[in-house]
Amino acid sequence: MYLHLGESTIVKTKDIIGIFDMDTSTVMKSSRTFLNKAEKEKRAVTVSYELPKAFVVCSEKNNKYKKIFISQLSSSTLEKRAKSSKIL
N or C: which end of the chain has fewer CB within 10 A? Predict the structure, then answer.
């Protein structure tokens, strides 16, 4: 199954590691460092140029790499979509 993250971006549900709220998660320095590192390594994908509200961490290539999708949708909206798809 797939989860729609906004705009024209979808991810495989089996690849999702976590869905995080941008406001509450980025309070911690470790989260900001994680996101900055992902952006520098070109592993962060901005779904929309609207105000980001959540980010989704996904595994790639047999869990060797992690890709981050920054979405304009809230983490609660993404969670509801995931639950309606019965993946959570």
Answer: N
